[in-house]
């Protein structure tokens, strides 16, 4: 009788959260059909299978070859109290500075992704005020000094609900390389 095998190749373990109750759960990283998936199981909400990469070779190179010593932020924002992922906000246990900072200018999104930690969606039309956006960007600069990349999202919302104040005070200075 031939040996039974799983339909995937086990690669690693990870820590994740349930997309429904946000409980911290263990995860497996597996390769299947040339893609990388994260498999989780919440005792209350069951199993989930999430695509995290569509190229196994590139994923492995990013994890195994393109490695460098982690750069630390200039400033941490939150103390370690409950552990990852609950102390999120750049705590001292964070292994890396913010390579890519996302600044959400509103909660609207045209999708309903089941893994969205921000709980954004088509029914949420809350916009950040200009002072709120400026405080968010100030925090990024305090943490990083000169940030690698700051992505102001969502872009589709920016185009749909164009804001003159955002263009003049945030986007234009960033385009020409000046600080706020």
Short structural summary:
The chain has 180 residues and is of the alpha+beta class. Helices cover 23% and strands 24% of the residues. The protein has helices at 56-64, 130-144, 155-160, 164-175, and strands at residues 9-17, 24-32, 35-42, 46-53, 100-104, 149-153.
How would you describe this protein?
The chain has helices at residues 56-64, 130-144, 155-160, 164-175; strands spanning 9-17, 24-32, 35-42, 46-53, 100-104, 149-153. Helix 2 (130-144) links the parallel strand 5 (100-104) and strand 6 (149-153). Residues 155-161 and 175-180 have low confidence and may be disordered. It is α+β, with helices and mostly antiparallel strands and 180 residues long. The chain folds into 2 domains: 9-64, no CATH class; 100-175, no CATH class. Strands 1-2-3-4 form a 4-stranded antiparallel β-sheet, with no helix packed on it.
């Amino acid at each position: 009788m031939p040996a039974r095998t799983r339909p995937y190749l086990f690669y690693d373990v990870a820590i994740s959260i349930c997309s429904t109750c946000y409980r911290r759960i263990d995860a497996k990283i597996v390769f299947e059909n040339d893609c990388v998936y994260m498999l989780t199981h919440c005792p209350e909400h069951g199993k989930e299978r999430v695509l995290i990469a569509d190229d196994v070779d590139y994923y492995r190179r990013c994890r195994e070859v393109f490695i460098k010593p982690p750069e630390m932020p200039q400033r941490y924002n939150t103390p370690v109290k409950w552990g990852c992922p609950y102390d999120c906000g750049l705590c001292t246990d964070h292994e890396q500075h913010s390579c890519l900072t996302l600044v959400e200018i509103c909660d609207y999104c045209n999708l309903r992704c089941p893994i969205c930690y921000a709980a954004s969606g088509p029914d949420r039309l809350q916009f950040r005020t200009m002072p709120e956006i400026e405080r968010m960007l100030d925090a990024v600069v305090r943490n990083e000094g000169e940030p690698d990349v700051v992505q102001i999202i969502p872009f589709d919302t920016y185009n749909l609900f164009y804001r003159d104040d955002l263009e003049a005070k945030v986007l234009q200075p960033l385009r020409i390389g000046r600080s706020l």
